[in-house]
Amino acid sequence: MTLAKHPYSPPRPPIPAVTGIRFDDLQKINFRAEHALWKNTPKAFPVRFFHLHKYAPTPVRMNVVRNGVAYPIAYDKATFNYEDPELATKLPADLGFAGFRVMNDGKANSDWLSFQGASYFRASGEQDQYGISARGIALNTATETKEEFPSFTEFWLEDGTANGPLINIFALLEGPSVTGAYKFVASREHGATIDVHAELFVRNDVPRLGVAPLTSMYWFGENQRRLAADWRPEIHDSDGLAMWTGKGERIFRPLVNPPSLQINSFVDDNPKGFGLVQRDRTFANYQDDSAFYERRPSVWVEPKGGWGPGTVQLVEIPTDDEIHDNIVAFWQPRAPLAKGDTFAVDYRLHWRNRQPYPPDNVAQVVATRTGRGGIPGQPRPTDNKARKFVIDFEGGPLADLEPRYDLTPVVTTSRGKVLNGYVVKIVGTERWRAVFDVEFGGGGPLDLRCFVRLGDRTLTETWLYQYFPPSESGRG
């Protein structure tokens, strides 16, 4: 609170020797394992520190907490091994660290949690594969106001293994519009879980506050084959936004790579959870034995306490390569923050293969495909004014259901006409498939909604989709 009453003091500009350290150079700088924090402590997770570089050039202060007392962790050039000795001579003795990573005990050079750059952090999930990232906070994302990226400027690390496989992380957040205090309680169980407590103090008005922001990458998948310029069948860290609303509805929105910046808002009150998830976990669908997209974790946000009214925001940015994070999702409270306000929030992040608390009363979406509309053997539309949508569902009440033909897809569209809808069980599997066409005229994207029903009973979560006609965008 005291810091928020004073103007923001930006960090000093990085030195040229640091901004010259690119990714390839960084691979030749290694933290010496013998200098890790807690390397010889029973049960504790050893912690190693990141070297400054071009993409994380600002040092952060590091401390260790022992018996309630904080002790600074001093930077020492000797803790790093430099394959280029000349580079080491150009660096000052008080350079500082870029962040830290928490190692898997007993696994050389294998880490499961890292904090580095602005307020970004990530965990490797159940299959030790990094992918999606989280942030401490998002400010003015996708608004006319320039987005801010506050930074964690100081950390305090505390061994929490006396109470389980935990590490306690305290952090100070600083930025032009907010300052804040954070506590993270991170556990290696069930992939990884991180309990987050944040208290923010506002220096300047914040038109759009993003709580529990997640950042991911989606280039193309089976729903956008026309974008598949690469030889691999699919490339994405996440393939959908999943939501569990305050009223109990389960929603899945497949991600898309849009022709222009798209922002979708999903109104809710006291949400039970949301997350960016990777549901497709079959190697054959990616064919990448270095990136291992099928292993990348899903991240689920579980609110603690009532979050009140607001919206889940989904931001999708066009991309033509996998190197760009182009997907952002976060919770936006209804009321914006004004100068002098305080804001506190608690939530848990789950980093795992499947989202936690899966529904047993409805099946989940597992694949979305699109293609030319019409019926084989009959005249097909030739003017790109009709499209077929194919949605596969799995689990819940469909799991043990024998083949039958009285299930119906309940489909709505923002414009056009829905035709030829039916639901069948896919032969040799436990999956069910909803198929329908949409005929549409000119105009912008289509907003679609579908779920499967048997009589009056809803059998699946709600599928939402935004489709961009190829005649307008080249993106089908």
What do these coordinates show?
- The protein has helices at residues 16-19, 23-26, 85-90, 470-473; strands spanning 29-31, 47-50, 61-66, 69-72, 80-82, 99-103, 111-116, 120-123, 133-135, 138-139, 151-159, 166-174, 178-187, 192-202, 209-216, 218-220, 235-236, 240-244, 250-254, 262-269, 273-277, 298-304, 309-316, 327-333, 342-352, 364-372, 386-394, 408-413, 417-425, 432-439, 446-454, 457-458, 462-467.
- The chain has 476 residues and is mainly β.
- The chain has two domains: 3-352, Beta-galactosidase, Chain A, domain 5 (Distorted Sandwich), CATH 2.70.98; 364-473, Immunoglobulins (Immunoglobulin-like).
- It has a 15-stranded mixed β-sheet that branches.
- The longest helix is centred in the N-terminal third of the chain and has 6 residues, at 85-90.
- The mean pLDDT is 94.
Radius of gyration: 24 Å
Low-confidence stretches: none
User: How is the CATH topology of the largest domain named?
Assistant: Beta-galactosidase, Chain A, domain 5
- Domain tally: 2
CATH architecture descriptor text of the largest domain: Distorted Sandwich
Find the count of extended strands (DSSP E, 2+ residues).
Answer: 33
CATH classification class of the largest domain: Mainly Beta
Molecular shape: elongated
Summed over residues and divided by their number, the pLDDT gives a mean of 94
Fraction of residues in H or I helices: under 10%
Give a quick account of the main beta sheet: strands, pairing sense, barrel closure: 15 strands, mixed
Number of helices: 4
Termini Cα gap:
50 Å
